[in-house]
Amino acid sequence: MRRTAVTVAASTMILTLAGCSMLNSTEGGGTASPTKGDDVTVGLLLPEKVNSRYEKFDHPIIAAKVASLTRNKGKVEYANAEQNASRQATQMQQMIDNKVDVILLDAVDSHAIADEVQKAKDAGIPVIAYDRLAEGPIDAYVSFDNELVGEVQGRTLLGALGEGADTSDRIVMMNGSPTDPNAGQFKRGALSELNGKVTIAKSYDTKDWDPKNAQANMAEAIAAIGAKKIAGVYSANDAMAGGIIKALKAAGVSTLPPITGQDAELDAVQRIVAGDQYMSVYKPYPTEAEAAAEMAVAKVQGRDIQFDALAGDTVDSPTQKDVPAQLVSVVALTKSNIKSTVVKDGIYKVPEICTAKYASACSAIGLK
């Protein structure tokens, strides 16, 4: 699905995807005529609350950016489907009925929502796929470079195994939900690094990204392989990593194998500090969320030149070719760069990470 190569960022500086000069650009001396002023209503549909990022970062950042772009005249109409695809379809229909100006859609089920995307299109409401690429006539897509996420996870896991890693090392893969197109991209990226270098002893597609399902799958893998024979675990996200760690500890494993993750959730950062989880993938949510808000407002206001400038890549979905896209890069988060990533970018403060339980571990890695 990825159409352009993206290099892993050396730092996590939040990128400005569209400056003021871009928003005021002209072509042939003429200024793009907006179809709507600042009284913009952006419909925001997010998929779930198990992952803390959606409530803590995505929604408030998008709402704040829409307000700043519209001189506080624009607003966000928000709904969260809590991992229920039917509920999200109802929420989207309600937004169509309410005649919102544009919809930012993070789909629970990218295939099932296609009919609602078409209904929005028929109603003249643009739909921008956010974080996950939905099917149907999507106008644009804003997300992280998802194959790169998997590559970073796989590469970092191999690094944790050391230079002697080979096919005698058995890996368990805990992939994300089969209804989420991102999960397939993460998996594909990870396998591009792991295939032929280690043995994938067990692989699971985890229903609903549910940590309890991941824990049950991991218990099954331990029973089949043997706890001591598992060299590492590829976990597609942090919440599932938590379930995986519970299963390993329940099986009596005291020295955990390297375990990956994604999303830099606070619990995961603390597990990394403590040594229970080896890494996560830090995805700068302000970059993605602000890009989506800018794209939504520009689209509604008819600023096609600027909208295209915000979408320098293209991607293909199963139903549509060459969807304009903005793909944001990511960074591997380990003990060594907590301070220069999530702390520096204001995602967490050191006291939030280094509670009494983790104080000595924080001190040992110089996190203070």
Structural description of this entry:
There is one protein chain. The two termini are 41 Å apart. The protein is built from 14 helices and 14 strands. 40% of the residues lie in helices and 17% in strands. The protein is globular. It has 368 residues and is α/β, with parallel strands linked by helices. Helix 4 links the parallel strand 5 and strand 6. The relative contact order is 0.16. The protein has a seven-stranded mixed β-sheet with strand order 4-3-5-6-7-13-12, sandwiched between helices. It has a three-stranded parallel β-sheet with strand order 9-8-10, with helices on both faces.
Give the topology, please.
Blueprint lengths: L19 H4 L2 E2 L2 E2 L9 E6 L6 H17 L5 E6 L4 H13 L4 E4 L8 H9 L4 E4 L9 E5 L1 H16 L8 E6 L5 H14 L4 E7 L5 H15 L4 E6 L2 H13 L15 H9 L5 E3 L2 H16 L3 H6 L3 E3 L7 E6 L2 E3 L5 H5 L6 H4 L5 H6 L4
Parallel strand pairs: 3-4, 3-5, 5-6, 6-7, 7-13, 8-9, 8-10
Antiparallel strand pairs: 1-2, 11-14, 12-13
CA-CA gap between termini: 41 Å
Number of helices: 14
Please mark out the parts with pLDDT under 50 across 5 or more consecutive residues, or reply none: 1-34
> How do the strands line up in the largest sheet?
4-3-5-6-7-13-12
- In terms of DSSP E residues, the strand content is 15-25%
Count the E strands.
Answer: 14
The largest sheet is: 7 strands, mixed
Compute the gyration radius: what is it?
Answer: 21 Å
The overall average pLDDT, rounded, is 90
Fraction of helical residues: 25-40%
Would you list the SSEs in sequence order as H and E? Answer: HEEEHEHEHEEHEHEHEHHEHHEEEHHH
Structural class by secondary-structure content: alpha/beta
Shape: globular
